[in-house]
Amino acid sequence: MIYLKLIWSYLKIGIFGFGGGYAMLTLIEREIVGNGWLTSTAFTDIVAISQMTPGPIGINSATYIGYMAPGLNHPEFSSPLWGLLGSVLCTLAVVLPSYLLVLYTSHLISRHKDSLVVQGIFKGLRPVTIGLIASAALLLMNGDNFGTQTPDVVKSILICAAAFAATYFAKIHPIIVICAAGLIGFLIY
Residue 145: CB partners within 8 Å, gap ≥ 6? Predict the structure, then answer.
């Protein structure tokens, strides 16, 4: 049954998804697209929607994928109620491992925060987290986001560079940059 498979996938994502939502994207893509529940294009769209909505991207994508995947793969589950069930199950499955881990270890870590072992564990996790976030950035640099024809790729890279410059150097609020990039993309494409 698709719900059990989704729960199992999101439990794995929740257990091994160190570093937040962007670090989880590679795991989510491998589990969701790799199992054929969504296409690469649909996954890219879900990532874009998850980035624009309030809340953590990992939870937003779990909620949205949980809603969409059952109906897309099994027509008998195309009712909104089945989608709502999938949303709730995937969201709980991705959050539950982290919740239990933090609940269990928070007292232990606070008592031993000066321990060389605990400090070593966190020093080891930092580069892994950066690597997972970099992997997510590379994952999103695909034909679905940048196009496949050279003029489209150049336009997409220019929009990307302009958005980066506007937020990093000009300190323009990201919401304004997102809206402007969407308008520019609408006009160009």
Answer: 44, 156
The residue assigned the tokens 């027509």 is 75
Separation between Cα atoms, residue 56 and residue 168, nearest integer Å: 21
Cα angle 173-53-90, degrees, rounded to a multiple of 5: 150
Phi-psi bin for 39: left (phi > 0), alpha (psi -120 to 50), beta?
beta
CA distance 80 to 31: 23
CA atoms within 13 A on the CB side of 88: 6
124: buried, middle or exposed (CB in 10 Å: 19+, 13-18, 0-12)?
Answer: exposed
152-184 residue pLDDT tens: 888 888 998 999 999 999 999 998 998 999 899
What does the alpha-carbon distance between residue 188 and residue 149 come to, in Å, rounded to a whole number?
Answer: 14
Distance CA 51, CA 108 (A): 33
Other Cβ atoms less than 10 A from the Cβ of 91: the count is: 21
Q: pLDDT tens digits, residue range 94-152?
A: 999 989 988 888 888 888 889 999 899 889 988 988 888 888 788 778 777 777 788 88
The fraction of the chain above a pLDDT of 70, given in percent, is 99
> What's the confidence (pLDDT) of residue 142?
76
Q: Return the HEC string of 64-120.
A: HHHHHHHHHHCHHHCCHHHHHHHHHHHHHHHHHHHHHHHHHHHHHHHHCCCCHHHHH
